[in-house]
Design brief:
This protein is an alpha+beta fold and about 350 residues long. The chain has helices spanning about 15-45, 70-80, 90-105, 220-235, 240-275, 285-290, 295-300, 305-315; strands spanning about 1-10, 125, 140, 145-150, 160-170, 170-180, 195-200, 205, 210-215, 280, 325. It has a domain at about 195-325. Strands 2-5-6-1-4-3 form a six-stranded antiparallel β-sheet. A hairpin with a 2-residue loop joins strand 5 and strand 6 (about 170-180). The protein starts with a strand and ends in a 31-residue tail after the last strand.
Length: about 350
């Protein structure tokens, strides 16, 4: 099974923009409502039965099961008239996501989800989109009719459209098509001329051929501008128009930095892949890197995104890419595999003089 996601820019008119914002507000109310009921159910089950609180009490009978997606959808459609104005499939997706979040909290020991304000709910999904509703420069969506879109790339033949996600971003409204193709793709075998790529903090990465790649120095000026705008933001009054406009300006600048970094990584990875037929990368937990002293440098360089883009490019060009163990790479003998002792940092590979 091959899955792919394409993103396009929407060009809605004023009425369609109002409809999208209204659908997001309905999804926001459903999310906060289900979240509040779930938290009340958890809090009531933790209260002692012989002591009453001096502040508040949760009057929920003992033994009542958790309000899952099916029960909450029935209650919402009967009590709330605003819910009936939205698309049923879209609202069910919000209920399913909130239900999955609570199950992850119980079984995977994650934190409680947070309630969202009107600027945090940015997207909703339409799970039932037919291919006949997608044309060259427009798409037909529920409650929006035909919406113009800017198609930057054509959809390949054979892909089946699964769902469409409407996104309200800093640069405008976007639509993301999720597609799949029923095909079995064999694994790429090992080729000659391997290339080892090592990630570093002083430099962005180092190649086994002796080439070093500098970091993203061209993003220092936009980062300084973001810091200056954030200093201005703290003096703005909350929920004011000036604060909202400044937030939008910061969001557009962050979006431009993200797009620039992503484009540069694609060009860098393409340069690496053109030189080799096999690429080896170290199996590193980048999530733990983001919690250390140098977390700011690691997150700005976005090593995890580099590896994701590298895997995508390598897979498209039939290049073999495995993950190797990250520890003791310069301490192990190449031919026999035993430990040779600790070396200095300038020695990255052990060479036995007798062989």
């Amino acid at each position: 099974m091959l899955a792919s996601t394409y993103q396009y820019k929407l060009i809605p008119d004023r009425q369609q923009i109002k409809a999208i914002d209204y659908a997001l507000s309905v999804c926001l109310s459903i999310w906060n409502y289900t979240l509040e009921r779930g938290k009340n159910w958890l809090t009531s089950s933790k209260l002692p039965f012989n002591i009453c609180s001096s502040k508040e009490e949760y009057i929920i009978p003992y033994g009542v099961p958790y309000p899952n997606c099916h029960k909450q959808s029935q209650r919402l459609t009967k009590t709330n008239k605003i819910i009936n104005t939205g698309s049923a499939q879209v609202l069910k997706q919000v209920l399913r996501v909130s239900n999955e979040v609570f199950f992850d909290m119980q079984f995977r020991k994650l934190y409680l989800p947070r309630s969202k304000h009107k600027y945090r709910m940015r997207s909703y999904k339409n799970p039932q989109i037919l291919e006949k509703y997608v044309e060259v420069n427009q798409i037909k969506l529920p409650q929006l009719e035909w919406v113009k879109l800017r198609r930057s790339i054509n959809i390949q033949d054979g892909f089946e459209l699964i769902q469409a996600c409407i996104l309200r971003g800093a640069s405008g409204y976007l639509v993301m098509f999720s597609m799949q193709l029923k095909v079995n793709i064999p694994d790429v075998p090992f080729h000659w001329h391997p290339l080892e790529i090592g990630l570093r903090l002083d430099k962005l990465c180092a190649i086994c051929d002796g080439e070093l790649v500098d970091g993203l120095q061209f993003l220092n000026q936009p980062h300084r501008k973001i810091e200056w705008l954030q200093l201005r933001l703290k003096n703005k009054q909350k929920e004011s128009n000036n604060r909202y406009k400044l937030n939008q300006k910061i969001a557009r600048l962050c979006r431009r930095i993200s797009d620039t970094r992503r484009d540069w990584y694609f060009k860098l990875v393409s340069y690496f892949v053109d030189q080799a037929q096999s690429a080896f990368i170290e199996n590193i937990d980048f999530q733990s890197w983001g919690r250390r002293i140098l977390s700011k440098d690691c997150l700005e360089d976005s090593f995890k995104r580099t590896i994701t883009i590298l895997k995508l490019r390598v897979w498209k060009r039939d290049v073999f890419i495995p993950k190797v163990y990250k520890n003791f790479t310069s301490h192990i003998h190449i031919n026999y595999g035993f430990h040779t002792g600790k070396n200095t940092f300038d020695v990255r590979k052990h060479n036995c003089p007798g062989y």
